[in-house]
Design a protein that fits this description.
Blueprint (H helix, E strand, L loop, with lengths): L6 H5 L2 H8 L5 E3 L4 E4 L2 H9 L3 E2 L12 H8 L9 H12 L2 H5 L2 H22 L2 E2 L1 H5 L1 H11 L6 H12 L8 H27 L5 H7 L1 E2 L2 E2 L2 H31 L2 H9 L1 H15 L5 E6 L3 E3 L2 E3 L4 E5 H4 L34 H18 L10 E2 L8 E3 L1 E2 L1
Parallel strand pairs: 2-10
Antiparallel strand pairs: 1-2, 3-7, 4-13, 5-6, 7-10, 8-9, 11-12
């Protein structure tokens, strides 16, 4: 059975995930006490089933986990209907598709500024870091602008986010737990102060809009608003950073695909980003709990039992994707579930797609001969899969 902490598995989980799919049904993982749905149809069914809920279990109520607990229990990600329906309706009114599409010029402006800085680093150092200098700051700056965070505070956001999301891994260390507690407290208090300020002096930012948005007499309470803002940053930039970084490294390692992208970056961008998300998924495991006995792929998940949708495995399922283990940036038929499915389909998916589809061609138009300067450094995590550093020249 899979050892999720094995460095070899974390470095390349796909051979083991392929073996898991060959069981033909969800498999029970004794150590974790959870079913693993590795096949596409099973993983998709887990995400869409109405009797498999995203049930957040508080960590030591009335403890140092207090802020961490309600940041999750009052968020879209960890709630179910009817609460989830109310939250998604309210947040969706402010975080509309038209509002997100209107951000494209701002995304391109920020991307070009970051590329200017990268160009300076390339001239002075001979290289730059595709993650730290481009893929990582871009979505953070975009979401910070969307929420109305002051420019001088942007440096706080990514460390807070990274500390919190480490708790989504299979076995977070004690040190990671302490960092998550502290980050949750600091992040929540920061957004709370901004929320109070926006209620007195509203602006055009999303926090101001979330503070007044209303539907059928319902509004977001303070904790729900804060949890929504924290979720938008955490989930909203992790997919973009890791999806972009994973896809770029895979492309660098395949000269034919790198040539395809460098010769026609705007023509290939849309299919390329979808293939990035399919080929080496930024999110690999999404856990659900049965609220009633539920059959998935011929296996009965009893009420109270857990089952995980293995998104990265599903996106490599040979019965769904032609040449599933090959990177094809021009792939047309690509029904990947990199952003999830069902009621928990990622609310920020349109923003992530705009960020990636805008930033990818701009990168290659500025640096048409970009290539790896050294071996990329991968983050030692499975659930949220990505790179710490990708040095290019």
């Amino acid at each position: 059975m899979i050892n999720f902490s094995d460095p070899d598995f974390v470095a390349n989980p796909y051979p083991s995930l392929k073996e898991l799919r060959q069981h033909g049904k969800p498999v029970w993982h004794e150590e974790l006490g959870i079913f693993l749905a590795a096949r596409y149809n099973d993983a998709n069914a887990v995400l869409r089933s109405k009797t498999l809920g995203r049930i957040f279990t508080p960590k030591e109520p009335e403890s140092q986990w207090n802020e961490f607990n309600w940041l999750h229990s009052d968020s879209l990600l960890d709630s179910e209907p009817p609460k989830h329906t109310r939250l998604r309706s309210l947040v969706g009114k402010a975080f509309s598709r038209s509002r997100i599409e209107a951000l494209r010029p701002e995304v391109e402006r920020i991307a070009n500024l970051l590329l200017d800085e990268a160009e300076n680093k390339l001239a002075s150092n001979g290289n730059f870091d595709l993650i730290a200098d481009y893929a990582e700051p871009l979505p953070v700056k975009v979401i910070a602008a969307l929420l109305g965070f002051p420019d001088e505070d942007e440096h706080l956001l990514r460390p807070w986010s990274q500390s919190i999301v480490k708790m989504y891994e299979v076995s977070p260390s004690v040190e990671a737990q302490h960092e998550a507690q502290q980050a949750a407290h600091e992040f929540a208090e920061y957004v709370r102060a901004l929320m109070h300020k926006r209620k007195v002096e509203p602006g055009t930012d999303l926090i101001s809009e979330l503070a007044v948005v209303e539907e059928a007499g319902e509004k977001l309470n303070a904790q729900e608003l804060i949890a929504t803002c924290v979720l938008l940053l955490n989930a909203g930039h992790e997919a973009s950073v890791n999806g972009f970084g994973n896809g770029m490294v895979a492309t660098f390692e395949r000269p034919d695909q790198l040539e395809l992208l460098s010769k026609n970056p705007r023509g290939v961008a849309d299919t390329a980003i979808e293939e990035f998300l399919r080929f080496d998924a930024p999110l690999h495991l999404f856990e659900r709990t049965a609220t009633a006995d539920t059959e998935i792929g011929g296996v009965m998940v009893r009420e109270g039992q857990k089952i995980a949708s293995l998104l990265g495995s599903a996106n490599r399922d040979e019965t769904i994707f032609d040449r599933a283990d090959e990177l094809d940036l021009s792939r047309e038929q690509n029904p990947h579930i990199g952003f999830g499915a069902g009621i928990h389909f990622c609310l920020g998916a349109p923003l992530s797609r705009i960020e990636m589809s805008a930033s990818l061609p701009l990168l290659f138009e500025r640096f048409p001969n970009i290539s790896l300067a050294e071996t990329p450094k991968r983050r030692p995590t499975f659930v949220l899969r990505g790179y710490e550093s990708v040095i290019v020249d």
